[in-house]
Amino acid sequence: MGLHLYYQGKALLLNIKKEENLLFTFGGRNEGWPTIGRELYHDNEGFRETIQLCNTYLTEMGGSEILSYFEEPVNTSYFEDESKFTCITAIQLATVKKYNDSGIYPNAVMGVSMGELGAAYAAGALTIQEAMSASLGYFTLFKHLEMDYSFIFLNLDYSAAVEFCGNSPVWTEIIFEDSPGAVLITCHKDDLKQLEEQFVAEGLTFKLVTQKFYYPYHSSKIKALETMLKSFHQIIEPKPLKCDYYSPTLGRIIPKNSILATDYWYNLVCGPVLFYTSLKSVIADGYKLLLQIGPPAISDRQLTYAAPALQIQLLNTYQTDSNEIEYDQSINNKLTARTFYKTGVTHDEITTLNEFKRKFNVSDATSTAPFKYLRNNGAIHYLPVNHSWIVLNYDDIERVLRDPQIFSSALLKEYDPILLGADPAQHKIIRTLLQPLFSPAVISELSEFTTITAGKLLDELCQQDSFDFVKDYSDRLSLLVLCNFFGLSAIDAGRMLDYTGKDYHNMLYWQRLEEFFRNEFTTCQLTKEDCLWGKLRDLVQRDEFSFDDAISLLRIVWTAGMATTSALISTSVNITLNEAKLALQIATDEKLVSKFIEECLRMQTPLSAIYRITTEAVELCGQQLPANTTVMLHLASGMSDPAHYTNPAEFSVTRPAKRHLAFGTGIHQCIGMGIARAEARSALQVVLTKLINLQGYSYCEPEYISVSDLKTMSSLKVQRHTKL
Ligand code: HEM
Fold it and tell me: What class has domain 17-142+228-346?
């Protein structure tokens, strides 16, 4: 027996091969190679079939055919026609497919520029048709942009180059981070001379990449073509990455199992390629074997910078001046002789879905793409990390919210047992009691108060060189309007802030707020008695209401109204400041302001999900749920449900009026929605009247914070331009 084990062990030891990780890399637009893939096309059936499939998709979508590249004599000027670069994407996809057919899959991928399409295909996040559609979009851009831009190789590291571009006397942007001390930048040809003088004045070395002019690829100029470009991305269905994805668009790794938002493919061409940062993280993560699919993404020079002392093997799938078939066979043999770690790319769709659900945490989602993916795979799913069944479709969410007997709010009792967490009978009593305090007259008064307060606030802010729209405008406004609603004077509001602090995302804030309500409940001098605070105090004094219940109501109304409304104001201001055309449209047509607010609520709902618990066994979306099951009603998903909205991903102020779920529905539907809407409308209108003053500022990217299911902007800084 012992001997047997010994021999088994020995045999095992002999069979153990060192496992490696393999990274597929994909280059960008590459013109100096007019023969790549031609021999394989004739020799390899799988390769040829993929190319033919790409050609079918391309021509069906109105693109140029690509078969002549492979079937007709070599044409050295083939890639002078910009629209033919879709052929490179096709070659990359066919090459991936060919390697997959021989059992070779990547453990991670990295694409550069349009090479990201091949990378996403290899990682299972794009189908061939989706990749070809996006490629066609990229190589349609040139038809709409002037070929008037120069590309310059500038010897400056990335952050210094950002500063240089920010201070440059002419428009210039970084389009590619090449290596530690070098970037590619672009500028208009008419500004080139002035820019060159600036380089000389600052003692910088540079070189024109070519005398030719191009369109401003990877720059903010592409944003002018947003609608056109995004139309090519509409067919993309979100799918989880089956392996790690090094993203030069973001300059970081996107881990396996994540889902790329559809906007990713738009953002890719509107900003710089963070190539070197991405390559460095590939190397730092220990990849030693890199296979360049199609035209190379990485040069030996760049690799030497990123991994000076390391032995990295950079294998090319194609080589100029050699027999393509023989070369391909030699690379294939090298790879099949090695053993790689198991890769997720080989998983079938069910395994991929199950793996995704096992790990997915709703709070981590940064776009609606994961919900779309889940919805495409069923209306309800169990998410172990969130300990609940997620419900994704509009109609199903509505059904649950309208059935409070079976789908109870009891889970929310810890926040407030008498209104939000109360079940129907008790809830009705309290809701009826409170409803008159949210009357149209109250809403109208608060709306006027908002207009006056917002006007003063913004006037003050516009005197400053910099401010934060979230902290200094939305938060302050939301706080002051709530204080007014509660009957607190400006002085009391100040005292309250001194006591609670301003960070309402913090648990301590809520504790201190409750203490303030408790301490001040009986003694506080109110500005009016006919308000929430006054009414509750009267009821308590007449022994018709308990002190604790009154405090619970003050707390829940404050909690429910403060962060949510501030988030709505911030979202609407942010969109207005970034979309000049839209801002002008709503500024000149008052009716559109309300529609704009509704669209903000639908597309960027402050509360992304609400929860219910089953009181008895019930069937929901074909799934049997026992009593005491938690269901998560994903409002953001419901409001992007294509069965309920046409083109749900499109922000449109002309969308026909339709219900949405941002305020919930059923008995617990937001009691403060009238206030929230009126307040946001007034706050936005004040911003619209000051658009001219606000044009003198530049805007930083907003920062976000997630506190449970409330995802909100935490900062939107603006800074007065230093020069025109
Ligand atoms: C954009 C701003 C707002 C949003 C997105 C919002 C959203 C919601 C949602 C989704 C619910 C339903 C919760 C559930 O069914 O579990 C709700 C309930 C509630 N909201 Fe709002 N809300 C906002 C503003 C306000 C304001 C300004 C107030 C008060 C001044 C307020 C007070 C309440 C209260 C008290 C409830 C509980 C109602 C009940 O259980 O009958 N909300 N809110």
Answer: alpha beta
- The reported pLDDT for the residue numbered 656 is 84
- Report how far residue 679's alpha carbon sits from residue 601's, in angstroms, rounded to the nearest whole number: 13
User: Encoding tokens for residue 91?
Assistant: 């070659």
Of 612, 606, 583, 603, the residue nearest 679 (C-alpha): 606
CA of 672 to the centre of ligand 1 (A): 6
Residue that the structure tokens 């001098």 belong to: 525
Ligand 1 residue neighbourhood (C-beta within 6 Å): 409, 419-420, 431, 485, 556-557, 560-561, 564-565, 568, 606-607, 610, 662-664, 668, 670-672, 675-676
Nearest CA to ligand 1 atom 6: 663
User: According to the model, what pLDDT value does residue 619 have?
Assistant: 98
Ligand 1, atom 20, residue with closest C-alpha? 670
| Pocket test residue of 479, 599, 670 for ligand 1, highest count of atoms within 8 A of CB | 670
Residue type, 182: A
* Cβ atoms of 276 and 180 closer than 8 Å: yes
Which residue has the CA at smallest separation from atom 36 of ligand 1? Answer: 670
Same fold, 17-142+228-346 and 407-720: no
- Residues 156/182, Cβ–Cβ less than 8 Å: yes
Give the residue whose CA is nearest to atom 21 of ligand 1. 670
* Token pair recorded at residue 11: 């045999």
Cα 293 to Cα 40: distance, rounded to the nearest angstrom: 14
Q: Quote the CA–CA distance of 404 and 396 in Å, as a whole number.
A: 14
Domain ranges of the chain: 17-142+228-346, 149-214, 407-720
CA of 593 to the centre of ligand 1 (A): 21
For residue 30, what pLDDT is reported?
A: 72
CATH says 407-720 is which class?
Answer: mainly alpha
Going by C-alpha positions, the residue among 87, 134, 141, 143 that lies closest to residue 231 is 134
Q: How far apart are CA 115 and CA 58, in angstroms?
A: 17
Helical spans, DSSP H, in 579-690: 580-588, 590-603, 635-638, 673-689
Using 70 as the pLDDT threshold, list the residues of the chain that sit under it: 1-17, 31-32, 722-724
Residue nearest to atom 27 of ligand 1 (CA): 561
Report yes or no: 709 and 607 within 8 Å, Cβ to Cβ: yes
Query: How many alpha carbons lie under 13 Å from residue 279 in its C-beta half-sphere?
Result: 29
What distance in angstroms lies between residue 3's CA and the mean position of ligand 1's atoms?
73
Residue whose C-alpha is closest to residue 394's, from 581, 84, 621, 617 = 621
Q: Which atom of ligand 1 is nearest to the CA of 610?
A: 16
Ligand 1 nearest atom to the CA of residue 430, by list position: 41
Q: Per CATH, which fold does 149-214 belong to?
A: Alpha-Beta Plaits (3.30.70)
Is the backbone of residue 717 left (phi > 0), alpha (psi -120 to 50) or beta?
A: beta
Question: 247 has which bridge partners?
Answer: 252
**Separation of CA 156 from chain center:** 30
Q: Which atom of ligand 1 has the smallest separation from the CA of 605?
A: 5
Q: What is the pLDDT of residues 517-555, one digit of tens each?
A: 999 999 999 998 889 999 999 999 999 999 999 999 999
C-alpha 485 – ligand 1 centre gap (Å): 15
Q: How far is the CA of 165 from the centre of ligand 1 (A)?
A: 45
Q: Which residue has the tokens 């939107």?
A: 716
What is the pLDDT, as a whole number, of residue 13? 46
Coil/strand/helix, residue 188: strand
The per-residue pLDDT for 179 is: 94
Single pTM value for the model: 0.90
Say how many Å lie between the CA of residue 434 and the centre of ligand 1. Answer: 13
Rounded-to-integer distance, Cα 239 and Cα 630, Å: 26
Do the beta carbons of residue 675 and residue 485 sit within 8 Å? yes
Question: How far is the C-alpha of 360 from the C-alpha of 446, rounded, in Å?
Answer: 41
| pLDDT value of residue 723 | 47
